[in-house]
Structure prediction request, 567 residues.
Amino acid sequence: MNQFPSSTFFSAPPDWGWYIVFYFFFGGLAGGSYFLAVLIDLFSRPEDRPLARLGYYISFPCIVISGLLLTLDLSRPERFWHMLIQSNTYQPIFKPWSPMSVGSWALTIFGIFSLLAFLSALAEDGHWQRPAARRLRPPGLLGSTVAVIGGLFGFYVAGYTGVLLAVTNRPIWSDTPLLGMLFVISAASISAASMILLAHKSGRTMPGVNALHRLDSWVVALELVVLIAVMISLGPVFRAWLNAWGLLLFFGVIVLGMLLPLALYWRRQWFGHLNVTAAAAAVLAGGFILRLVIVFSAQGV
Amino acid sequence: MAEPMGFYTDTTVCIGCKACEVACKEWNQLPSTNGGVNTLSGDSYDNTRALDGIHWRHVKFIEQFTEDRKDGRWLLMSDVCKHCVNAPCLEVCPTGAIVRTEFDSVVIQSNACNGCRDCISACPFGVIDVNPASGTAQKCTLCYDRLQGGLEPACSKACPTQSIQFGTINELKGRAQKRVDQLQQMGEKRAYLYGADEKMLGGLNSFYLLVDKPEIYGLPPDPKMPTRNLKSGTWFSAFGAILVGLMGIINFRNRGARVNAREDQP
Prediction:
């Protein structure tokens, strides 16, 4: 067994490539941004509503892009609807034990909630003249319902991809149960980072950005702990990362995407006012490289 | 349901003729590799290389020789889908394209498959791949069409040494155990059955008689169901979401508290 540290080393790679890497990134952004926007809507002050709106503005386009990427990745893209409807009976198909089956439904349902919140944000910003649409966001019963249910689906969309990888027989992916947790936390960190960047780009003063920046530093620290836990949980399979992928993981994810943003948070004098955006950009880059390494490294084994 | 059917492959009598590969390709009308232009792998006599969407049978050539090549042996094995009783591919398939037939075999319905390739990563044996001609995941069907017509699969029919035997699983198990006993009595103490009992994925409906460790043949010693990680993965993810949620609440509330505190100052 020395040559093969796990029975997973006899499976074949599914050739999930760039479409999937980008999907994991945009799917994480879609779910994470919605999740954070809901937290801001429910727990922060009213003046942070513009910041939450940014979350909804990120979420919907990202979930649309995600659906397109997933469809393009299929060997038969015109059969994308087979994920939801059985082609021979036209009955819905739902397999609760298959993350891809549940994920397909979750993406569809989350897409609807994401659209509702997106429309509400547009209405609130005055870009869409339908005042009634503003009720689709908290406060209010309807808005809170959309927020909470959509937030739960957002969390699922952000994390199920990691569980999907674990529910295979590929090395690394299925040798740890922690990838879903890592993806959820990483989704939060890249989403907070992109909301921070958008807030700065908008030029408007958003008082919640500092809280978001602090939250991002906490989440990145947690992400680092979970990534180390992933490495430990791999046991002898960790050997599969003792190559160029491991180097990319170390320098691209741990150093660039985690240690640098944390240092920038604690040493605010380094780049002055650019510190916050530099940290956010580094977190985004690290989050992308994380998905890239996880998707590709397990298929080259 | 008809009685469970499958293959028993006695690797000790395989001569590496590849008649099974040819018969499979012919019956199932599988396209040639590289447009028929022959390329050599450099790996013994194995130019098929692996099971994939257009190779549903693969004869493996394992050379076990000493450094000076004065002593050694060939291990030959015709590999195929194991038609697992608890099939990982069938379990994860989101479209319902993978089904269990009345013969207890596992078949991918090409007209339902959309090529998501989840089954490829789920199969612990590396059996499945996309057939470029159809754009769908494909593998051995245990010649489902032949079975429905009362015929045996093309590969076992073509096998000249009865290395590949087709029949009911019960009967095959009995036959295989007798062969193991015979080999043991003859001094081949390494002979054993791989996948014949229920411990391995509920039993493999295509099981093997081997004379070395499974990994030597490129077989996983301990294949598992992919859903073994489902519960733990889900709970850890939920725990992660709760931690992020708590961090979010603390930070956004805390911010409010700080602003309030500032406002309260004279």
Q: What stands out?
A: The two ends of chain A are 15 Å apart (CA to CA). The mean pLDDT of chain A is 95. The first helix of chain A runs from residue 18 to 43. Chain A touches chain B through 76 residues (CB under 8 Å).
